[in-house]
Amino acid sequence: MEIKATNNLELLKFCGHACSNADSRQTGIDAFNFVLIVNDESGLSITASNGNQSFIRKCEADDVTATEYGAICLDAAKFFQVVRSLPKNTPVKLKTVSDKDRALVSCGRSRLQIKTIDSSTYPTIPLLDNEQQHFTANANLLIDMLKRTMYATGKKDVRAYLNSVMMQTINNCLFVVGTDGHRLAANRHMLNGETVNDSQILIPVNAVSVLTRLSEDAENIGISISDNRVEFTWGSLIYRTNLVDAKYPDIRRVLPAPSNKRATVSRIGFIEVLNRLLVMLAGENAPKVKMTFNQNSIQLTTVNSELGKDTDDNENLGCDEITATITEEIGFNYHVNPRYLIDALSNTPDDFVCIELTDVTSPALIIPSTQRSSLNLVMPFRV
Description:
The protein is built from six helices and 27 strands. It is α+β, with helices and mostly antiparallel strands. It folds into three domains: 2-121, DNA Polymerase III, Chain A, domain 2, CATH 3.10.150.10; 133-252, Roll (DNA Polymerase III, Chain A, domain 2), CATH 3.10.150; 256-378, DNA Polymerase III, subunit A, domain 2 (DNA Polymerase III, Chain A, domain 2), CATH 3.10.150. Helix 1 runs antiparallel to helix 2 (76-85), helix 3 packs across helix 4 and helix 5 (267-280) packs antiparallel against helix 6 (338-346). The chain starts with a strand and ends in a 5-residue tail after the last strand. GO terms for molecular function: 3'-5' exonuclease activity; DNA binding; DNA-directed DNA polymerase activity.
């Protein structure tokens, strides 16, 4: 089999993402350091995997073609580096070298060989079986929801379900939720045009991170779910991942009761104030600020974690203020991690946000001022 591309950039479009997702570290299976290129009745495609997630791209462009049916299994990292370094605007050819575990890349005067393995030994992952659920979502909305959610998930928590994003469908509404036990992010979107069964799955946060870094031209993403896997079909891309086998906590139990104690502030302005105060808290493992709610403003003061009290003039006092609209008197101070607040504000889709409070021990609810399709919770410090 010989593969031809009009130039190296077109070949990179075809193989780049796959090469980036080939990884043997999770399984110790060396074959996962390779990518599998196949040309058969269904067309030309490239496959990569790390054992838990797999990436398949079908070639739909005329700029990359294969001369006959066959398969090549190439060292992913070397293939990517070689293609990226080739002369620009010059045709590229790739073919196996007879009787050697090598493939030859030809481009202009360049002749570069890349290690191969027997394509029949590559551990391909079969198509999704026992499909229980399938629905379609707008690609931009889904990717945006995932991005606004995954910041709140755990990364290396011993509780595996906290290192995941929960995706749930209820009454034709899609919910995406993440939490690490200290904060929570939840986003929702109505699914129009089809009837969707109720379901809940837990997607590993590292898989979500890979998916949200992708960019395709197709308007919609197809989502297929089985007992232990989910498959995202986005244009010419098929991305599969294993699911986390665990029970997700009932987030309704941590949502605070509706409260009239609400402050509305400029989202960007609040982030700027918090970033200034973080300068004064440099080096703190768990930085803390006290929010004092006045008639038309919120005053923020740094808190010294070692002494357990507000800082004084000899301890680099940090104090700032932001204008706010207070709907009802908030008769208490609220202590919170400013980094958590910044994360929540950065992932709230509106110019103005509402901060709802119940008492000093309940989480702060942060929502857009114009709609409630997104919410973020931040747990307070106990004082």
